[in-house]
Write a structure and sequence with these properties.
Length: 455
């Protein structure tokens, strides 16, 4: 006995309804978009028959096919998917296709109709997937080469599309929620790791160092000072010029000294003449003997004055006492300037005997013991690696010509490079004892706080 048609149709509806419920339950329990896409393009076959299913997703103003039935990873560059992406984008942009409906070739513009018979056939079923607020998230396009689409199938897919849209929105919201959460956890772990690494690094041993201005100076130079009080008239040498022992360096103005010598000589002649007259008178007058003795003393005094004036005049020209180079700034700084006896004018130094003079500011000083390592970075050539050893360090700070107060450190240079010339300046790096990193970083701020607040 054959089953009545009414019962067969009723049974098909029950089977479709059961499949609808099962697929809806399955799609609500997916964990990510990949699982959702797989269910949509493959499990929908349990509800209706189709040859090909494509899931399209809207992303801003562009479109992307994220899943194809029976394919693991769709090739976005294939001609089929390129054409399908254009079709899905066109359908989603028309209000007439905002609900589940059948699509025929005549519904498309001419530029898209060329591939319809090749890729689809008669009609396709378009199912837009909308979120709860009506925003279209994407669409499901089903194609079937043989057999017309029934109204029951369209109705079932309309219900299924509504469930798919809500499930898709839920999956996207869960993904957005997980990402910040995972990001916060990763950032927290990274922050804890960085903090632990920073704390560990604070207790690493490092050597204390200090940077200070430095200059290459001669060792035991000969100081040439003013031998008398007066004004320099002429220089015979230029700065940094090599000189020999006995070579003239500069000359004082001798006009006043010559006049003084002439006056002293004339005064001596007058006293000697007066003494001679007194001697002749003492032969006849006995009291004149006392005057002769007094005049002898005056003659001796005038002779001393003449000798002093002559000696002073002989010192107007200053000569080098040894070989070397003369170190001074500029001759014009001294010409015409009144000088006092003993005032320093220049140095005569051996260019091959040099050392490093470092001026360490008081606020940046560390323990600078003899034998400590020193590195010099010259201003004229920072690429040179010049090293030295501390020879001595001043016990107390003193005022420098630039107005600062600093400790003076002398260091012996281990390099004998020709580029190292007396007078070259740079920055010296002095290495002290070992300390922890936290002490190295906070030493100066700590000292400032204690000096300011007295803690």
């Amino acid at each position: 006995m054959t089953q009545p048609p009414e019962n067969s149709s009723h049974q098909q509806q029950l089977v479709g309804l059961a499949a609808l419920l099962q697929i809806g339950k399955q799609v609500r329990h997916v964990n990510n978009v990949a699982e959702f896409s797989f269910v949509v393009v493959n499990e929908t076959r349990r509800l209706v028959r189709y040859d090909q299913a494509l899931l399209w997703r809207r992303r801003g103003g562009s479109a992307k096919i994220i899943a194809v039935s029976g394919v693991d990873r769709p090739n976005d560059k294939s001609p089929y998917l390129i054409w399908m992406r254009k079709v899905c984008k066109y359908l989603s942009s028309r209000e007439s296709f905002n609900s589940t409906c059948l699509v025929a070739e005549e519904h498309l513009p001419e530029r898209l109709q060329q591939g319809w018979q090749q890729w689809i056939g008669e009609k396709a079923l378009w199912c837009p997937l909308q979120a709860g607020d009506g925003v279209i998230l994407g669409g499901l396009l089903l194609t079937r080469a043989e057999g017309a689409w029934q109204d029951v199938e369209v109705a079932l897919l309309a219900q299924m599309a509504d469930a798919y849209g809500h499930a898709w929105q839920s999956v996207q919201l869960r993904s957005l929620w997980r990402r910040p959460r995972q990001g916060r956890v990763l950032r927290m772990i990274f922050g804890v790791a960085v903090a632990a690494l920073a704390v560990w690094a604070m207790f690493l041993p490092v050597r204390l160092t200090v940077l200070a201005p430095a200059q290459i100076v001669p060792i035991e130079p000969l100081v040439v000072s003013a031998p008398l009080q007066g004004v320099i008239k002429q220089f015979y040498v230029e700065p940094n010029q090599e000189v020999k022992a006995g070579q003239k360096l500069f000359r004082f103005d001798d006009t006043e000294l010559r006049n003084r010598l002439q006056v002293a000589k004339k005064a001596l002649i007058e006293v000697e003449t007066e003494m001679q007259r007194a001697r002749q008178q003492s032969l006849s007058v006995r009291d004149k003997t006392v005057d002769v003795d007094m005049l002898k003393a005056r003659v001796a005094l005038k002779q001393a004055e003449v000798k002093y004036a002559a000696d002073t005049l002989a010192r107007v020209e200053v000569q080098a006492e040894r070989d070397g180079i003369v170190l001074f700034a500029d001759a014009n700084d001294w010409l015409g300037k009144p000088l006092v006896t003993g005032e320093k004018i220049m140095l005569v130094a051996d260019p091959d005997r040099r050392e490093l003079e470092i001026r360490v500011p008081v606020d940046n000083a560390i323990n600078m013991e003899p034998g400590g390592e020193v590195r010099l970075f010259l201003n004229v050539d920072p690429s040179l690696d010049v090293r030295g050893v501390i020879r001595q360090a001043s016990y107390e700070a003193k005022a420098m010509p630039d107005g600062t107060v600093a400790f003076q450190v002398k260091a012996t240079l281990n390099s004998d490079l020709p580029q190292l010339r007396v007078g070259h300046m740079g920055t010296a790096k002095i290495y002290g004892q070992e300390a922890f990193v936290y002490y190295f970083l906070f030493r100066r701020p700590w000292a400032t706080v204690r000096r300011t607040l007295g803690l």
